[in-house]
Amino acid sequence: MNQKITKTFTDSSQFQKISNDILQEAKHLGASEAECVIALNKGFSVSAHDGDVETVEYQQDKSIEINVLFGKRSGSASISDMRPEAVQAAVQAACHIAKFTDEDKEAGLAEKEELAFDYPHLDMDYHWPISVEDAIEMAIQCEREAIAFDKRIMSAEETTVTTMEAFYLYANSNGFMGGYPHTRHEISCVLIGKQADEMQRNYSYTIATDPKLLQSISHVAKEAAERTVNRLGARKISTMKTPVIYHAEEARGFLGHFIAAISGGNLYRKSSFLLNHLNKKIFPSFMHMQEQPHLYRALGTAPFDDEGVATRDNVFIENGVLQQYCLGVYSARKLGMKTTGNAGGVHNLIVKPGNKTLADLLKTMGKGLLVTETMGNGANLVTGDYSRGVSGFWVENGEIQYPVQEITVAGKLQDLYAGIQEIGNDVDVRGNIRTGSILIGEMMVAGS
Questions:
Q1: Are 303 and 294 within 8 A, CB to CB?
Q2: At what angle do helices 84-98 and 13-28 cross, to 10 degrees?
Q3: 205 close to 186: Cβ distance less than 8 angstroms
Q4: What integer is the mean pLDDT of 279-298?
Q5: Residue 240 and which of 76, 159, 282, 334 are 20 to 30 A apart at CA?
C-alpha cells in the first residue's frame, strides 16, 4: 500500500447545498433567523517507538452545528451525520428547543454590514503528499537520531508525524456563506533521559500550515535530545523575589491570560480584572500588540470569524495602552459596543519584538530564573492572581548555571504585565500568539 491523503475539499458545492437546505428548512419551520457551521477534517497520524511503528491513526471527522432564532429565543443542535433526513431532524430539534428557551434581547446574527461578503481568499491550504509508509520512516528516523545524540537518552516516549486537511463553512439567513480549506502538519518527539537514579522528560516539535515550513527531522531530534539532557541534574531553589524570563514558547501562555481578560465573555460577566480598562496603561510604553488575521501561511489566519464577520488588523495594545476589547457580536451587544471580528478568539496576535536575542536577555537579567516549562492553569481572571508551577534554569552572571524544578512563580498579572522590561527577538511562530521571550523585573518564586 502507498496510501496518501488526497485533497478532499476542493469541491465545496455539497456543503453549500447542505447549508442552504438547513437555512431553508429553518425558515419553513418559522425561524426568524438561522445559521450553521460545517466543519470537516481528514488526515492521519503515525507514531514510532523502539525503532518500529507503534500506532497509525486515520481521522475523518465531520460536524454540523445549527442555531435558530424565533425572535429572541434560540435553539441549537449538532450532528455528525450529513444524510438529508438527519440534517432535517436536527433543524427540527433546534426549532423545538427554541420554543422552551428564555428570550435574550442580545441574541441574533451579525448585521449585514458587518458580514464578510467580500472576504479575501487566503492561502491556507498546503497539501503534504506523504504516504503512511513515508511518515512511519520519518518518525523512526527521528527517534533513532534523538536516541543516538547522547547516551543519557534512555528512550523515546513517542515520536509522531501528523498531517491534517480541513474545511470550514459558515452560512446564515442574512445571506452570508463563506468557506475555506486549511491544513496543519506536525512532527514531534518526546524523550526520556536518565542520569543515575534521576529521570527527566522533554520534547521538541515543529508545526506549520505548509509542510515546506516544517523544521527537519534532524532538527527536531537534536533539539528534543538537547532539551532532555539539559534537564538532568535539576535542583530546587530557595524562595525569593527575582527577575524572571519566560522563554518565547512559554511567553505565549503568559500573554494568553491578557487576551482572555479582554475577551467579551469575561467582560460582560464581570469576571475580568481588566473590566473598564479601555484607554488605560496595562503594559510598558514599548509594548505593541496587533492582530494580523490575514498573515501569509500563519496558523491563526482566517478571513472571517465564527459569526461570519470580516476579520481585520486590530491593535489591542499601543504604547502600552489598551485600545480595544476582543469582541464577537453577542458580547459586543452585551457591552453596548461593536464586534471586533473576534468571535472564536484572536487570529495571529503579533507582539512587537525587541532587538535582543535570548542570550542578550539573560545578560540583561544577570541573575534570575529562565522559565522553559509551565504547569497548571493558575490564573484567576477575576482578580489577576497568578500562580504557576514551573521548571527551567537558574541564571547567574548572565549565563545558565543549572536546571531547576519543583518551583512556583506567582504575582498579580496587573503588576507582572506592567513590570515587563524587554521582549526578545526570538519570536516563536508555532502558535496563534507570536512573541519573543519576555523579561519581567521581579516575581515571587517559591522553592524549598
A1: yes
A2: 40
A3: yes
A4: 97
A5: 282
Q: What does the pLDDT look like over 370-386, one tens digit per residue?
A: 999 999 878 999 999 99
Nearest-CA neighbor of 187 among 41, 47, 55?
A: 47
Find the mean pLDDT for residues 130-137. Answer: 96
- Residue 216: what pLDDT? 97
Residues 178 and 313: their CA atoms lie apart, in Å, by 20
d(CA 396, CA 298): 36
* pTM (2 d.p.): 0.92
- Distances, alpha carbon 149 to alpha carbons 153, 167, 303, 362, in Å: 8, 40, 43, 27
Looking at residue 11, its pLDDT comes to 63
* Structural domains of the chain, with CATH: 13-230 (3.30.2290.10), 240-446 (no CATH)
Beta carbons of 192 and 228 less than 8 angstroms apart: yes
Which whole number is the average pLDDT over 133-146?
Answer: 97
